[in-house]
Write a structure and sequence with these properties.
The complex is a heterotrimer.
Chain A: H1 17-41, H2 53-65, H3 74-102, H4 110-142, H5 151-178, H6 187-197, H7 202-226, H8 234-244, H9 275-283, H10 289-293, H11 295-298, H12 305-318, H13 320-324, H14 338-341, H15 354-357, H16 365-369, H17 376-390, H18 396-408, E1 439-442, H19 444-449, H20 451-466, E2 471-472, H21 483-488, H22 491-507, E3 512-515, H23 518-527, E4 536-539, H24 540-549, E5 561-564, H25 578-586, E6 590-593, H26 621-631, E7 636-639, H27 642-655, E8 662-665, H28 666-674
Parallel strand pairs in A: 1-2, 1-3, 3-4, 5-6, 5-7, 7-8
Helix pairs in contact in A: 1-7, 1-9, 2-8, 3-4, 4-5, 5-6, 5-7, 8-9, 9-12, 20-28, 24-25, 25-28, 26-27
Chain B: E1 4-9, H1 16-32, E2 36-41, H2 45-52, E3 57-61, H3 64-67, H4 71-85, E4 89-92, H5 96-108, E5 112-123, E6 126-133, E7 138-144, E8 149-153, E9 169-172, E10 183-190, E11 203-207, H6 214-228, E12 231-234, H7 236-240, E13 261-265, H8 271-274, E14 282-287, E15 300-303, H9 306-321
Chain C: E1 2-6, E2 9-11, E3 22-23, E4 28-29, E5 36-38, H1 40-56, E6 60-67, H2 72-80, E7 85-90, H3 99-113, E8 118-122, H4 133-141, E9 145-155, E10 158-165, E11 168-175, E12 178-182, H5 195-201, E13 207-210, H6 211-214, E14 223-229, E15 238-239, H7 245-261
Parallel strand pairs in C: 1-6, 1-8, 6-7, 7-13, 8-12, 9-12
Antiparallel strand pairs in C: 2-5, 3-4, 9-10, 10-11
Helix pairs in contact in C: 2-5, 3-4
The chains are: A mainly alpha, B alpha/beta, C alpha/beta.
């Protein structure tokens, strides 16, 4: 080991000052590019996203550095890491050179020079090449469908390839021409040098080196300058986006509206987005995974979250003046003046069509799949809000549901069911007669008014009774939690319903709630807090699982093969995967997982107001999931959500032919295991 | 006792409704010990002759001004005639014209009107009418406080009266009619029953998942519907399966219908479907499952395979028709 | 052109039968947990008026209601749908006035509100469904009435009104002023108001009167509800009986024939 191991920086290169001069336009161009992004983000509405820095930094480490989500696609995960860490090492290496050359700190010596600056750097440089090759094979040969194919992406790969290859050539020529004694420490460069020496003289290599050095420099500086104008910007925006991303679960990602002070309800121009939304747009790496996991897209509908984000981004970049509109001035231009408000998004951008917007089930798969934590689905809701609240323009069947919510407090227009039908013969007290009740059983509109789901409510109630739980219900005083109104986009109606229910909770001093519906669960747990409802909310699977753990319910083992379908609002939105599985496992002989399960569960198609829309018969999300269900070979498909129950039954009944496959809620399964003779058939009123 | 009058529009002929109206009025008059005075508007000797076999007298208003119904002129004419007759009650059928003029006639005669009566009787000197209220959820008995009581009835729900030995006298009304240009019916369109809206259908035959195929809809249900004079409808499951067009879909996401009779075949009766037929007066069902929810909403039903039952039912219906 | 639309607030007609109760002594339905809504035919009427205004470009729409204080909600909704003005005659007396009283009160209010060319009402209300108010109002005002209309168009200085009949439809040409009662049609489904308009509607002025202020002679009797009851519905389905399928089919067919012959 030679403590003097090093190399001559700028060997063979004269007029190095030119490099420093070239740095100026590079930094100006790059700086201007970054400035332009920032100035556009700043035109969005304010929002606070810098609280709890420790958690945010943790997120950045896990997702920006370790790229946990990117790695869900193993192949892509590896090549991205190769390129990412390769570049980091190369940047460190360049910094080391700068420290040595510009600051006179002679660190580029000895063991450090050999092990790091030579060996490690070569290896990581080679990994970059491997990564680029893998990426190129995928992009040009494999051509998987979800990816976004642009010329820019090809040029970027080409640029990286050329930069690294020319870098190795430079290294090789230097090594060969100077007969570098430590050549072996730079294996790739050494190889390049040896290979070149076979066809080039020392002088030729010197000349080539001199020319190539400047070419390589200009290429690198050009790359830096070019970076903010391409999707490469994600090297800055992705970590920033991950840092500022909401720390709440997916189920709590929708914005609240202050109706008194808002200029616009919902979004129909870039200006109405928050700066964080606009940053989202710039963080997109065009990976296409959101669209790949979108259930609507999977069954052939137009909705594409990726296209939505990219087209919004394109608008922001190409027509910012129009898109953001003139800045608000005090000179009284009339409200609603389009030029001032900014170019309308809906109908102008193909991916932001009303058709697409009304196809979203709000399942959140897009958000969960996104490696850089973009919030695609909340933007769709923002756009829906505009259509519903500012234009009153939305599908007729959803209008019926909304009218029914307003007039009757439930979305099932035309039903003749009463909220107490399910409780016949069960002797359940109204909360007003039960101030000692430990918990309120929140039935939900589905559980009360849909025939099939009434059985599930009965099953849940019977289990609670069997376990000796002191519970009560709101009965006829229960109004819709407001989830359908909120997902359809009528935030005003949602607020009205929420405040109504919260007043009732306060009136009856309700603190603890258990509900069988994940949508109600999500809304009561996360979305009522804004209006003063501070509640302890449990999904019935959690509550029942605890009763089993405590020995208050004693189930016998089951005898069937049961596949469990994760509801979006329980699983992905709230991270509850274990409790329902516990119940299924207890009550079955064998529990089967769907191919797409847990965080990757495929939506049943019922959320987001989609239960109230007639889908074209060949493009039904529930049919696709039913196909998957039947493919598991299970006798029973277990669900834990009233929308899933309806959707899965419809889908499975349509496709099952002669097979005996049933859909059962986890509470029904548990009831059978606890009381095999129990019936959930309601007695006649 | 003052007399009971009825008003018939000749253009409809002496149809089921006219027969029911006349029957109801005849019985009311007999109950009150009064005469039945029929008023026939429009040119129709046959109608006058038919009703004369039941009523005590018939007044015909067939002047050109009222031969074709025009609201202001007919109202004027009827007011004059009723002032002449001075009845205790004036009964009408539930056709459009009767419904629209009944209250106005009552007002002009300083009487009281009520509509959609399903029962009518005398209580002493007062007329009492029973009608459905609150969307059919309740029934009210109303006593008319002014005279005449102008009542339009759900005429087809009443039994006709037998013809009497002696026919009533038919006279022509003496009317003093001035032209009234304020409103004028300028166009009339009769719609073919095939094109009639499902929401207006009186009888509907609907098929569900239990029907099984598009062919079955055409081969089994459609002929059955034809015999009943019914419109076709379907549940969402059947439409989803492509066995019926979307325009036939009845239910929460579909049409809301209010027929007098709804025959559900192979339909389970889930609430989403029932939400579309909550206004149906009578529901009948054929289903293989005796526990199917549809039977909770039925007036009558039959458990069995429609493939075997419908042909038998069709046969029986054809026999009854003869 | 001045259009007046009368609106009635009623108990939600879609209350499920199980939750619907009456007070036999009061001879009125009990409110219970049911909501109050605007009668659908009144909303159809307002929608027809709004569409007329959109097509003809020049009409002022006033919404009028005679009802309890809660009826203000109905009028606010009308304003949210962009009616130009609203007036409420507060009824704090008999909760179920008969149609003649209603017609007289509305007529008195209309005279206070000004001259109207077109007065529109729903054909009947979803609670008592008397279906007379429009006709009686026409008589009180001394103008003609066209019932069961579903669309209105301008035709010079007249109106071209399409109205439904049991066998199809008719076109009526009417001079103004005229009273028109409206029935539902696929084209007059009431529009959903924009949320902003809903918020603004609460800030708009609303004229209010008590019945006594209008000097209406509402005393006359018209008819009296002597009894109000919920008929016992057979919830039992009559299953066709018979030993053989043929017998059962026969019984079923017989019941079908009975029902269809009464139509």
């Amino acid at each position: 080991m030679n403590a003097e191991a090093t190399r001559e920086i700028y060997w063979n290169i004269g007029h190095v000052w030119v490099m420093y001069v070239l740095l100026v336009p590079t930094l100006v161009a790059a700086g201007y590019g970054v400035y332009r992004h920032i100035s556009r983000w700043r035109q969005g509405l304010p929002v606070a996203c810098f609280d709890r820095p420790a958690e945010r930094i943790g997120r950045v480490l896990k997702h920006a550095i370790l790229q946990a989500r990117t790695a869900r696609d193993a192949y892509a995960g590896w090549f991205h890491r190769f390129i990412f860490f390769g570049f980091i090492v190369l940047v460190i290496a360049t910094t080391v050179v700068a420290l040595d050359a510009d600051l006179g700190m002679h660190v580029m010596r000895g063991a450090f020079y050999l092990y790091f600056q030579s060996l490690v750097v070569d290896i990581f440089g080679a990994l970059v090449l491997v990564g680029v090759a893998m990426a190129a094979v995928r992009r040009f040969v494999g051509r998987p469908k979800p990816l976004v194919y642009t010329d820019e992406a090809a040029w970027i790969l080409a640029a990286i390839l050329v930069i690294v290859v020319t870098g190795f050539l430079l290294e090789g020529w230097r090594i060969a021409a100077t007969h570098d004694p430590w050549a072996a420490w730079s294996p790739v460069g050494n190889l390049a040098g040896r290979a070149s020496a076979m066809v080039m003289t020392g002088d030729a290599m010197r000349l080539a080196h001199r020319l190539m050095w400047w070419f390589h420099l200009v290429l690198c500086l050009g790359f830096i300058a070019w970076l903010p104008y391409t999707k490469m910007m994600h090297v800055i925006t992705a970590p920033l986006n991950i840092y500022t991303a909401s720390l709440s679960p997916i189920g709590a990602s929708l914005k609240n509206i202050d109706f008194e002070s808002s200029a616009a309800f919902g979004v129909n121009s870039l200006k109405a987005f928050t700066w964080k939304d606009l940053l989202d747009l710039d963080a997109c790496t065009e990976c296409g995974r959101c669209t790949a996991v979108c259930p609507a897209n999977a069954v052939g509908k137009e909705l594409s979250p990726c296209d939505l984000i990219l087209q919004l981004r394109q608008l922001m970049h190409e027509r910012p003046r129009e898109a953001f509109g003139a800045p608000a001035n005090g000179n009284g231009q009339p409200a609603g003046d389009e030029a001032r408000a900014g170019l309308p998004l809906i109908g102008t951008l193909p991916a932001v069509s009303p058709e697409s917007l009304w196809q979203c089930t709000t399942c959140g798969a897009c958000m969960s799949a996104c490696p850089v934590f973009i919030h695609q689905m909340p933007k769709i809701i923002d756009l829906r809000r505009h259509l519903v609240m500012e234009e009153a323009d939305f599908p007729t069947s959803m209008q019926d549901a909304v009218m029914s919510l307003e007039k009757r407090g439930h979305p099932f227009s035309g039903t003749q069911a009463s909220r107490l039908d399910w409780a016949d013969g069960l002797n359940i007290r109204h909360i007003k007669d039960a101030s000692d009740a430990a918990v309120l059983l929140w039935v939900g509109c589905g559980g009360a008014l849909l025939e099939r789901n009434q059985k599930i409510t009965r099953a849940t109630a019977q289990l609670l009774q069997a376990a000796g739980v002191n519970f009560a219900i709101l009965g006829r005083d229960e109004k819709c939690c407001g989830d359908p109104a909120r997902r359809i986009g009528n935030e005003f109606l949602f607020e009205t319903l929420a405040k109504d229910n919260i007043a009732k909770f306060k009136q009856h001093a309700v603190k603890k709630i258990v509900t069988a519906c994940p949508h109600c669960f999500n809304t009561l747990r996360h979305e009522y807090a804004h209006f003063g409802g501070s509640l302890d909310v449990y999904h019935h699977s959690e509550y029942l699982a605890r009763l089993v753990d405590e020995g208050r319910l004693k189930p016998a083992a089951g005898d069937r093969k049961v596949a469990y379908h994760d509801p979006c609002y329980l699983g992905r939105h709230n991270g509850i995967y274990g409790a329902p599985r516990q119940l299924v496992q207890i009550a079955s002989r064998e529990m089967i997982e769907f191919e797409r399960c847990k965080g990757s569960s495929f939506c049943c198609g019922g959320g987001g107001g989609m239960s109230f829309i007639e889908e074209p018969p060949d493009k039904r999300v529930n049919q696709e999931r039913a196909r998957e269900a039947l493919a598991t070979g299970a006798d029973v498909v277990a669900v834990a959500c009233p929308f899933c129950t309806t959707m899965m039954e419809d889908g499975i009944n349509a496709r099952k032919g002669d097979r005996d496959v049933r859909v059962m809620d986890v509470s029904e399964l548990l009831l059978q295991a606890v009381q095999p003779d129990a019936t959930t058939q309601a007695t006649a009123p | 006792m003052k007399d009971i009058a009825i008003i018939l529009f000749a253009s409809a002929g002496f149809d089921k409704a006219a027969q029911g109206l006349t029957g109801a009025a005849r019985r009311l008059a007999d109950q009150a010990g009064a005469k039945l005075r029929a008023i026939v508007v429009g040119a129709a000797e046959t109608v006058a002759a038919e009703v004369a076999r039941i009523a005590d007298t018939v007044v015909v208003a067939d002047q050109p001004e009222v031969a074709d119904y025009q609201p202001e002129l007919c109202l004027n004419a009827l007011t004059q005639i009723c002032r002449e007759i001075f009845p205790a009650a004036v009964l009408l059928s539930n056709d459009t014209y009767s419904q629209e003029i009944a209250p106005r006639l009552a007002h002009r005669l300083a009487g009281s009107a009520v509509g959609d009566g399903i029962e009518i009787r005398m209580q002493g000197d007062a007329v009492r009418v029973v009608r459905q209220v609150y969307g059919g959820k309740a029934q009210a008995v109303l006593e008319m406080k002014r005279s005449p009581a102008v009542v339009w009835l759900r005429a087809r729900a009443f039994q006709p009266a037998p013809a009497r030995a002696a026919a009533g006298e038919i006279t022509r009304a003496a009317l003093d009619l001035k032209p009234d240009p304020r409103t004028r019916i300028v166009e009339r369109k009769r719609e073919e029953t095939g094109e009639a809206r499902l929401e207006d259908a009186r009888v509907i035959v609907a098929g569900g998942r239990g029907v099984g195929s598009r062919e079955a809809f055409a081969a089994e249900l459609q002929p059955f519907a034809e015999i009943l004079g019914a419109q076709m409808a379907a549940s969402r499951a059947a439409c989803d399966a492509g066995w019926a067009p979307a325009t036939w879909q009845v239910g929460q996401t579909g049409k809301k219908v209010a027929p007098d009779l709804y025959v559900a075949i192979g339909i389970s009766g889930a609430s989403q479907h029932m939400a579309g037929i909550s206004e149906a007066k009578n529901v009948a069902a054929i289903n293989t499952d005796a526990e199917a929810p549809i039977f909770k909403h039925c007036r009558f039903g039959i458990v069995g395979d429609y493939r075997k039952i419908l042909p038998l039912v069709r046969q029986k219906l054809a026999a009854v028709a003869k | 052109m001045n259009i007046l639309v009368c609106l009635k607030q009623i108990l939600d007609p879609e209350v499920p039968a199980r939750d619907f109760h009456i007070d036999p002594a009061q001879r009125e339905a009990e409110r219970g947990a049911a909501n109050l809504v605007t009668n659908i035919f009144c909303e159809n009427a307002l929608e027809t008026a709004l569409q007329f205004r959109e097509r003809s470009g020049n009409a002022r729409i006033t919404a009028l209601s005679y009802g309890p204080a809660t009826a203000e909600e109905t009028l606010r909704k009308a304003l949210a749908m962009k009616a130009d003005g609203a007036a409420l005659v507060v009824n704090d007396g008999n909760p179920n006035p008969h149609p003649l009283t209603v017609a007289r009160v509305l007529a008195a209010a209309i005279l206070q509100l000004g001259q109207f060319d077109l007065i529109m009402l729903g054909r009947e209300a979803g609670d008592w469904g008397a279906g007379q108010t429009g006709a009686l109002l026409a008589e009180e005002l001394g103008v003609p009435c066209v019932a069961f209309a579903d669309s209105i168009e301008s035709a010079g200085d007249k109106l071209r009104i399409r109205r439904q009949t049991e066998w199809g439809w008719e076109i009526v040409e009417a001079q103004m002023p005229v009273v028109v009662t409206i029935t539902n049609d696929e084209h007059n489904v009431p529009r959903i108001p924009k949320v902003r308009d809903v918020m603004m509607s609460y800030r708009q002025p609303l004229t209010k009167w008590n019945v006594s202020e209008l000097g209406v002679n509402a005393g006359d009797a018209y008819y009296e509800v002597t009894e109000l009851f919920i008929p016992q519905k057979e919830t039992r389905c009559e299953f066709a009986a018979g030993d053989t399928e043929e017998e059962r089919a026969g019984a079923f067919a017989k019941r079908l024939a009975e029902l269809t012959s009464a139509l």
